[in-house]
Specification:
By secondary structure, the chain is an alpha+beta fold. It is built from three helices and six strands. This is Lipoprotein.
């Protein structure tokens, strides 16, 4: 009886141990998840200002970055029409960045005014910031 119990417990332990050693991917292979999100193009980014502007189908979105800032012209996917901290996918760099969406669905004038006020203290010159227009491609 002792042999049967020992052998069966060793068999069960080895099955559990070997079954747990399989390779699993918990992250999706590919960009289908991100490409199904809202699309936008970065139209303003500055090295001295932590804010950047994304042009979307519905207007302009202002994002405060947490370290990494994309370049102007980069294509971005994510929840661009909701306030708060969001993960954004930079399609151009194939990277994920984190940022706080402060305002969305802005007109060009509203976004320009907001960037002028938010980035005023970060600038090394007194130049006015200019947001580019017409970089958004229809998808």
């Amino acid at each position: 009886m002792k042999k049967i119990f020992t052998i069966s417990s060793m068999l069960i332990l080895s099955v559990v141990l070997l079954a747990s050693c399989t390779k699993r991917s918990y992250q999706e292979e590919g960009n289908d998840y991100w490409l199904s999100k809202e699309y936008g193009v970065v139209v303003y980014s500055d090295n001295y200002c932590p804010y950047f502007v994304i042009e979307t189908q519905d207007g302009y979105t202002v994002v405060r970055s947490n370290g990494y800032r994309p370049y102007e012209g980069d294509e971005v996917y994510g929840d661009l029409s909701r306030l708060g901290f969001r993960d954004l996918y930079n399609y151009t760099d194939n990277s994920i960045m984190r940022g706080e969406i402060t305002d969305y669905w802005l007109t060009y004038g509203e976004a320009q005014y907001l960037i002028d006020n938010l980035c005023y203290g970060y600038s090394r010159t007194a130049e006015k910031k200019t947001i580019k227009q017409g970089l958004l491609k229809k998808k």
